[in-house]
């Protein structure tokens, strides 16, 4: 068979694939894209992994005893069955739960990183199917920026400042004097984008802005968060102390007369109450630089130098997504906005605030939004949902009530879990607690290409295709391209795409037309593209027809005429472009939040001590920060890595010496929630008292409850940010670390077992 070459697309970039005998032989980035060559080259190993699920499987206990045998999940063998047998079982279970318990007892689990394709987007497909079937309990928010998703609508009227909008790098290069990056600008994070990107030129954009005179200050305990060769200033505070630093800088602006009172009067609401908090009128504590020095561990001189850097010139304040994944994470974003408001530069070119420059590729890129098509959803007949980071608590406590945002939610009695797209046994916190909660529902159904821990903990596993085995359209509003994703190879073994699986199930349940409207994959792709053409007509932009687009492989969306400046229109006319807040202005004080009377989220930005941090650590405890792996997308690509041993854990040499650790050694990390292994890497750029461990390892505990691959989420707490946001707080974690000795007794592992 002839060798074929095709181009395609994924979350980590566009690539050219070589195919022979219906197998993916090699892959490399599109010339000039800047995508990571190592990640792209892993595609053949990913698609043809020995861990691919070759056919449907059913857990032995479920075959023998039926639903309600969840204690065997993750312990019993998975038995291969035919597609008809598997689909009949799934349809029967859905029908049983709908008839006996109603739609609220069907939990639709998914996460949006399963594919860069907008049609074969697992989260969209499963939501559409379950809505057509009768309804389901959904998830709201996300793990990436769940706290921001909750707080920003109260402050700015929407979450757009974290989900898609940011002042562009072109504006930064031309106007910004100082960029202060709370949480850092780690280059490894620029390798991925949700929906994919053909351009990976963040390093060049940042370097260009610096060459034009922009100063960069990185505030992070991790030296790796500071891009090399830019002459950036690194400030290393204790983890979780960023809010205190921001408040102290705002206090300095107020007390030195630098605060832009005209801006506060015209563009914000409630600044008086916030300023009273800064001077300590209510609690007797002035939020001075000295106060922040005690909390952050930074020398007072460093904080004074930081203030001097932002007290003049055009200043951009940025915060990474990771900062709001901590106890009281809402406060960090709210405090950053408040500090930017005190400086008075919000809505000006190169100034104000933006989120995520160091969290994702293409944040701040020049891209015209609205031209990437999206598969439409269906209204959920039930309509109920729970925050993404609360599903474990919900499984364990049916009927319990919890505060969320400005209301209260009541947990449903989840009887059936249907998960397609995502690996909760990777990204959830306290994985041993999840293991117990996961056994409570009567039935668990999973779509998955590989034998992940989630698949191994299912009752019924349906083998799903990868994006290399189907046709799709990829793209994101942050990147100036829409890209064709042609099928590269036939489905591996007996795998089927989610759309086909759900269509077959919808046929069995009598809702086929509601689900797919009688359309095939090709029908949908052409209809979705027609929507892009319609958008083009409305914007007087010529969009190629579908066949021309497909044959070309991509379409470069014309860039916007002007660089994006966050809240520029609001700045120009706050009445015409009023925000969707109670006052139409930026809320530095929120009456709806204040009315709740919460003890962990006041009506204005405030400092709260975290539950776990260096400020209350025992002498041998360290603060564990869990970041994204350098050449993976969450847990994706873990099965293709060539190195052996558990995930690396970075530690300062002084901390390592005290504990008898050296580079390359296998260490054991533990706390009262669990224990895992890690491969030691000495890092002198890391703040003393801090560990850094990526979260990409697949969950694999031994019989004694010691996680072998190095997944730090056995250590992180199933504790939410606050009663307002109820979001992931993984970055507030204390652990101990020491040499691993294989003859440790079972009780010393401090894990819950499997």
Written account of the structure:
This protein is α/β, with parallel strands linked by helices and about 750 residues long. It has four domains: about 5-45, no CATH class; about 55-140 and about 375-475 and about 485-535, 3-Layer(aba) Sandwich (Rossmann fold), CATH 3.40.50; about 145-365, Dimethylsulfoxide Reductase, domain 2, CATH 3.40.228; about 615-750, Barwin-like endoglucanases (Beta Barrel), CATH 2.40.40.20. Strand 20 (about 470-475) and strand 21 (about 480-485) form a beta hairpin. About 60% of the residues are buried.
Counted by DSSP, the helix tally is: 26
| CATH topology term of the largest domain | Rossmann fold
The global form is: globular
Rounded to the nearest angstrom, the distance between the terminal CA atoms is 47 Å
Helix content, binned percent: 25-40%
Low-confidence stretches: 743-754
Largest sheet: 6 strands, mixed
Radius of gyration: 25 Å
Total count of domains: 4
* Structure classification: alpha/beta
CATH class of the largest domain: Alpha Beta
As an assembly, this protein is single chain
- Number of DSSP strand runs: 30
Strand ordering within the main sheet: 5-4-19-18-17-6
What is the CATH architecture term of the largest domain?
3-Layer(aba) Sandwich
Mean pLDDT: 95
Q: Tell me what portion of residues adopts beta-strand conformation.
A: 15-25%
């Amino acid at each position: 068979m002839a060798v074929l070459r095709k181009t395609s697309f994924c979350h980590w970039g566009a690539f050219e694939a070589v195919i022979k005998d219906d197998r993916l032989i090699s892959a490399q980035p599109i010339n000039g894209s800047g995508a990571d060559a190592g990640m792209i080259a892993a595609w053949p190993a990913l698609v043809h992994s020995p861990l691919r699920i070759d056919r449907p499987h059913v857990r032995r206990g479920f075959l023998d005893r039926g639903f309600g045998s969840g204690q065997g999940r993750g312990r019993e063998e998975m038995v291969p069955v035919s597609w008809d047998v598997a689909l009949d079982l799934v349809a029967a279970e859905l029908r049983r739960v709908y008839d006996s318990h109603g739609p609220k007892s069907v939990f639709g689990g998914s996460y949006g990183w399963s594919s860069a394709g907008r049609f074969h987007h697992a989260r969209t497909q499963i939501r559409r199917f379950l809505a057509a079937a009768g309804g389901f309990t959904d998830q709201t928010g996300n793990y990436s920026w769940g706290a921001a998703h909750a707080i920003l609508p109260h402050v700015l009227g929407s979450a757009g400042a974290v989900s898609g909008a940011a002042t562009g790098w072109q504006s930064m290069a031309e106007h910004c004097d100082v960029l202060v990056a709370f949480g850092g600008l780690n280059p490894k994070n620029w390798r991925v984008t949700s929906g994919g990107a053909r351009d990976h030129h963040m390093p060049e954009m940042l370097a260009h802005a610096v060459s034009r005179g922009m100063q960069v200050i990185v505030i992070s305990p991790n030296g790796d968060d500071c891009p090399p060769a830019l002459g950036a200033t690194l400030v290393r505070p204790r983890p979780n102390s960023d809010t205190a630093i921001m408040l102290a800088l705002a206090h300095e602006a107020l007390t030195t007369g630098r605060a832009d009172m005209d801006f506060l009067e015209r563009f914000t609401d409630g600044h008086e109450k916030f300023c009273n908090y800064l001077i300590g009128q209510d609690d007797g504590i002035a939020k001075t630089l000295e106060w922040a020095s005690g909390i952050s561990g930074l020398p007072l001189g460093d904080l004074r130098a930081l203030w001097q850097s932002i007290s003049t010139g055009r200043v951009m304040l940025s915060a990474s997504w990771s900062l709001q994944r901590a106890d009281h994470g809402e406060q960090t974003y709210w405090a950053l906005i408040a500090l930017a408001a005190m400086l008075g530069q919000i809505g000006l070119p190169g100034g104000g605030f933006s989120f995520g420059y160091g969290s994702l590729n293409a944040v701040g890129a020049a891209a015209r939004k609205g031209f990437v098509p999206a598969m439409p959803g269906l209204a959920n007949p039930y309509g109920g949902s729970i925050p993404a980071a609360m599903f474990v608590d919900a499984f364990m406590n049916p009927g319990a009530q919890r505060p969320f945002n400005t209301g209260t939610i009541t947990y449903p009695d989840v009887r059936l879990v249907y998960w397609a797209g995502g690996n909760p046994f990777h990204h959830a916190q306290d994985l041993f607690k999840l293991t117990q909660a996961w056994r409570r529902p009567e039935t668990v159904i999973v779509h998955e290409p590989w034998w992940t821990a989630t698949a191994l903990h299912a009752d019924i596993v349906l083998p799903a295709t990868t994006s290399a085995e189907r046709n799709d359209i990829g793209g994101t509003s942050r990147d100036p391209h829409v890209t064709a994703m042609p099928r590269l190879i036939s489905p591996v073994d007996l795998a089927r795409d989610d759309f086909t699986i759900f269509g077959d199930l919808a046929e069995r349940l009598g809702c086929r037309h509601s689900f797919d409207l009688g359309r095939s994959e090709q029908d949908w792709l052409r209809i979705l593209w027609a929507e892009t053409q319609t958008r083009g007509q409305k914007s007087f932009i010529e969009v190629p027809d579908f066949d021309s687009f497909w044959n070309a492989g991509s379409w470069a969306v014309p860039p916007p005429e002007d660089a994006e400046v966050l809240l520029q229109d609001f700045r120009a006319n706050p009445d015409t472009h009023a925000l969707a807040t109670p006052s139409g202005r930026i809320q530095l004080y929120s009456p709806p939040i204040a009315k709740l009377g919460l003890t962990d989220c006041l009506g204005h930005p405030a400092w709260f001590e975290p539950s776990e941090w260096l400020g209350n650590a025992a002498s041998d405890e360290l603060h564990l920060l869990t970041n994204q792996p350098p050449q993976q997308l969450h847990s994706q690509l873990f099965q293709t890595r060539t190195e052996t041993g558990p995930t690396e854990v970075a530690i300062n040499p002084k901390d390592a010496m005290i504990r008898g650790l050296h580079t390359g050694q296998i260490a054991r990390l533990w706390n009262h929630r669990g224990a895992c292994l890690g491969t030691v890497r000495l890092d002198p750029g890391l703040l003393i008292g801090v560990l850094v461990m990526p979260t990409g390892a697949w969950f694999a505990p031994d019989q004694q409850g010691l996680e072998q691959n190095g997944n730090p989420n056995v250590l992180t707490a199933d504790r939410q940010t606050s009663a307002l946001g109820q979001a992931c707080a993984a970055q507030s974690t204390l652990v101990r670390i020491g040499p691993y000795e294989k003859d440790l007794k079972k009780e010393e592992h401090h894990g819950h077992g499997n």
